[in-house]
Amino acid sequence: MPIALDEELTTAALRLRELTNRTDITSNDPRLGAIVRELSSGAKSALELAEEIIGRSHDPEEVEVQTTKIGKLRSLIDRLKRLDLRAELAGLLEEDLPARDIQITLEQQGWGGLGRKTLQEVGDRHGLTRERVRQIVARSISRFHESKPFTPVLDEYWR
C-alpha cells in the first residue's frame, strides 16, 4: 500500500517549482542559500530542492517546519523581486559589511544613482586614501565572485 504524503508540503514544493527564476537561487546564495541548505543538503538550487521534495518517497519528520521554510523562501524571493536596483545592490552588501564600507562601495561604483566616483573623490569625502577606498571596494565586490547571488532586479536591468 502506498504511503500518503503530506499534501501541503507537496503543494509548497510545486509552487516553488513554478517560479520563473528558481534555478537562479543557489545553495551558496548569500541571502537565500541558507534556507535551501536547511531544506536539503544535496540540492544545488531551489529547482532541485522542489524536485527533490515532489519526488520524495516519504515525508520528513518535521513536515510543518519544511512547509513553513518553503513559504519563507518564496516570501523572500517575492520581496527581492520588488526591490529597486539600488536597494538590491545595497542588500547584497549588507550581509556582513559595515555601513561605511557599503556607502563607499555604492558611491565608488555609482550604484547609488549619482554616477561612478573616482577613488580620490570617495577618499576625500570619507577621509581615506585612494588605496584604502580601493581595498574596501575590492573586498566588497569579491563577495560576488564567491557565489552567484539571486539578483532579479539586476538581471532584468541587463536584459
Structure description:
The protein has 159 residues and is mainly alpha-helical. It has helices at residues 7-18, 33-39, 46-54, 63-81, 85-94, 99-109, 119-126, 130-146, 152-158. The mean pLDDT is 85.
Radius of gyration: 20 Å
Biggest sheet descriptor: none
Topology as a string of helices (H) and strands (E): HHHHHHHHH
Number of helices: 9
The proportion of residues forming helix, as a percent range, comes to 55-70%
Put the structure in a nutshell:
It is built from 9 helices and no strands.
Please give a handful of descriptors for the protein shown.
single chain; 159 residues
Write the layout of secondary structure elements.
Elements: H1 7-18, H2 33-39, H3 46-54, H4 63-81, H5 85-94, H6 99-109, H7 119-126, H8 130-146, H9 152-158
